[in-house]
Amino acid sequence: MERPLVVGVGGSDSSLQAVDWAADETARHGLPLRLVHASLWERHEGARDRVVVGAGARSGGAGAVRFAVREAEVRGCALTAVRAWRTPTAEPVDHILIADDAARLREEQASTGLDEALRAAVREHPEVEIRRHVVEGPAHRVLLDATAEADLIVVGAQRRHGHFGLQLGRIAHTLLHHARCPVAVVPQPV
Fold first, then answer.
1. Among 26, 105, 107, 110, which residue's Cα sits nearest to residue 7?
2. What is the residue range of the signal peptide feature (predicted)?
3. CATH number for the domain including 185?
4. Global confidence as pTM
5. Which residues contact 90 (CB under 8 A, 6 or more apart)?
6. Per-residue exposure over 111-129, b if at least 16 CB sit within 10 Å of its own CB, e if not
7. Same domain, 52 and 74
8. CA-based torsion, 144, 146, 147, 149: positive or negative
């Protein structure tokens, strides 16, 4: 069986429209459909097709990136790829210039990591415009902020062999509970 498309819907009148959207998406991609109760679907009745993907540091994010690129392609829109980075507070520095260099290095590493995470998707889908954003801050907060302007956010979740279901981390858990748009959580084998 193929992996299902899992969609959150609310208990309002617009939930029927959410179900229609989910049915259209699963028909486009030939996937089974699973519905999960959520809230605030009303905001997405006039969606403008803005897809965001969280491209994290783990190599398992390739599935989420592939899903997001295909989703942007079928919607005919650009994809915004977001990578968060942090400068650990535990790094001792003797001078402010050294601290600036450390921050710049972390940002460059995050940018390089984002390029690597997108490399295969760019090669396989050259017609999809991909906007890259490298942002300093905790990943769960950076991506939550990105949901304010998104119509769909895509993240990965680890699926470990021998375990039942997905092991949601802080990012997916935060987005499922607080995102201001639909969330697609793509299983990543570990």
1. 26
2. none
3. 3.40.50.620
4. 0.71
5. none
6. eebbeebbeebeeeeeebe
7. yes
8. positive
